[in-house]
Amino acid sequence: MPSPQHTGPRRLGDYIKFFLKKNGLDTTVKVLGVGRAWEEAVGDARLVAHTRPGTVRSGILKIVVDAPVVMQELNFRRRELAKKVAELAPTSGVRDLRFVIGSIG
User: Are 40 and 78 in contact (CB under 8 A)?
Assistant: First the structure.
């Protein structure tokens, strides 16, 4: 929470950020912000259809991938994709990507 010593008016956004972080919801908000950025960064709807952005923790966006061959292709482009996502969604804090095999449905 913003410092209690500060007596002037505060921005509502500061309280919302505090509430989200305190309740573990801040990563969910970040993920919602990177969904479109992820799709645009990949640029290929066929590849995007096999992925689902997960959580952002410590600057790493976890991407769930449903096929090993897709995961391999995305791993080749990992740095490029991470940079593009960071540019398209600068408030997300994404610095890197981590791909994991799983169900996207």
Answer: no
Contact 94, 56 (CB under 8 A): yes
Which residue segments constitute the domains of the chain, with CATH numbers given?
A: 27-101 (3.30.300.180)
Mean pLDDT of the chain: 84
Position of tokens 């799709």?
A: 39
Instruction: Say how far apart CA 1 and CA 85 lie, in whole Å.
Output: 29
Q: Enter the pTM of the model.
A: 0.70
Residue of 43, 33, 27 whose CA lies nearest to 81? 43
User: Starting from the edge strand earliest in sequence, which strands make up the sheet with 51-57, in order?
Assistant: 51-57, 60-65, 96-101
